[in-house]
Amino acid sequence: MNEEKDIKEQKYEKVAVPPKVNKEQKDKTTEDYFKGGLLVLIGIIIAISALQLYFTVDNIIYTWFEYQYVPIIKAFYNMAVIIMGLYILKSYVLNKKEKK
Questions:
Q1: pLDDT, tens digit, for every residue of 35-52?
Q2: How many domains does the chain have?
């Protein structure tokens, strides 16, 4: 009977886990908020410029190529934009994971 009790106690034995050590977190200063806001502003400007470039190239395709070839050229152009976007996202996500 004592053996059964010892076995049950061994199964539910508590294990001590060391606490996670947090790196020092410094308080955010005004300069940190300014840098963050500037980064967001630059990101918005880049996004607007990228959209304008996309539509400008779209108009150039209509100007330079005959009407029957426009859908084919647009398909290749859109595929290139998608591939570039996926490559940028992939490299960004991989860089984020490597930094952690």
A1: 888 888 888 888 898 889
A2: 1
- Is there a domain that residue 63 lies in? yes
Alpha-carbon distances of 15 from 8, 11, 53, rounded to whole Å: 15, 11, 60
Domain with 79, as residue range(s), is: 32-100
Asked if the structure places residue 78 within a domain, the reply is yes
At 12, which helix (H) or strand (E)? none
Give the Cα-Cα-Cα angle 55, 56, 58 (nearest 5 degrees).
Answer: 60
Verdict on whether the full-model pTM lies above 0.85: no
Strands (E), 1-100: none
Give the CB-side neighbour count of residue 63, counting CA atoms within 13 A: 6
